[in-house]
Amino acid sequence: MGAANHDEHRVGDYPFCDFKTHYQPIVELSSGEIAGYEALARRKDADGTFVTAGDLFFDDQLPREEKLLLDRHLRSMALHQTKRSNHSGFITLNISPDWIDGLTQDHNIPTLEMVKRSGVDPSRIIVEITEHGGSLDNLKRLTKAYQRAGLKVAIDDFGAGASQIDRVVELEPDFIKLDMGLFKAAVQGGYAADVVLSIVSLAQRAGCKIICEGVETEDEFYFAIECGADFIQGWLFDPALPEWLPPQSYLKHINSMKGGYLQQKSRVLESCARHNQEVAQTLLGLCRRIDPADALSSIVENLAIHEAHRLGVLQFFLCDREGNQISDNVVVAKVCLQLNDKFRGYNWSHRPYFPLLHAMNHVERNHIVVSEPYRDFGSGKLCKTHGIFLSDECVLLIDVLTNDVVLFQS
Fold first, then answer.
1. In terms of C-beta distances under 8 Å and separation of at least 24 residues, what long-range contacts does 40-43 make, across chains too?
2. If the chain, 410 residues long, is cut into consecutive pieces of 10 residues, what is the mean pLDDT of each piece?
3. Whole-model pTM?
């Protein structure tokens, strides 16, 4: 199938012959090979270079019919390139919800018709739903039709603006592309990193593969690995290109960067493991010196303030075996330990680490359980809770700072 000849047509001030489809490589992290390409609209500038044509699709002065004609012309070119290439990878086609809203249930679906005419295996096509508008009912109807025909569906810019959780639930996409702005903010750490890691966890539990786009630096590449990305695209490899490359074009580069990540991550995890061991040794040492009849006072007497600061201890407290807090919080301040009775009587049995404490206490006495990292409300820093049964009826819990969630962040 050749691309349709529309050279006599114009879009705004530009003839159709000025428009071409370019292709940005999408690299599979596990194989290191180019797994596919995103088809992007490009327009020939006055000096003969190609620039993005995306702004035309957002120009309210251009008639919708011209935009739609150009959009289908570019998709046709992308399918033609996919068919004639020796590459077996996929192609992603951006489709605006506005186009979908223009289709009634009686319409044939143009993209499916184009794929059928092209002779491209439908499993090589990913329909990328862009923007955030459009009727969710229409999107659901069309995405199910795409998937029934063998195409795959991706949600673009996931995490941008208003929540798109409803789209994941309703559309059951095959891929999720993280919003580029949110991704780049997350590389700097802090709350943005927490949000991105949570979004990725949600997407993975829903069975979606993750694509990180806009990757331009090694730090962004490393953070994409931290995110659990399956695929990566960005100028770290190449901008959008007029032709497809051999699949192994970036393999050496990818393997080199993955080696660098492995070394740095190993050092971070080694440091964290040593820190966990120090906390564990301190806990076990306290347990040996604690008077069960007056456990909290014994801990206060035996835990030196400088040792608490060195280990990053924020606070500690006691619970009974049902998870009821039976002591004040002992807060590690600058020069002394301070008592806070705000949470006395609260029940923490719903925290994931508490059932695990019970289970491990039956398997091995004096076993220390460590929670997943979370952000402390008071300091805003990442911490973990370390817990141990002091007796059959008393549990010691210590909140300690940690930095082992994201490679370069505290």
1. 40/94, 40/240, 41/70, 41/71, 41/74, 42/240, 43/14, 43/18, 43/19
2. 54 82 96 96 89 84 84 91 90 79 65 93 92 74 92 88 71 91 88 84 88 95 93 95 95 96 91 90 86 82 89 94 95 91 95 93 88 82 91 92 58
3. 0.84
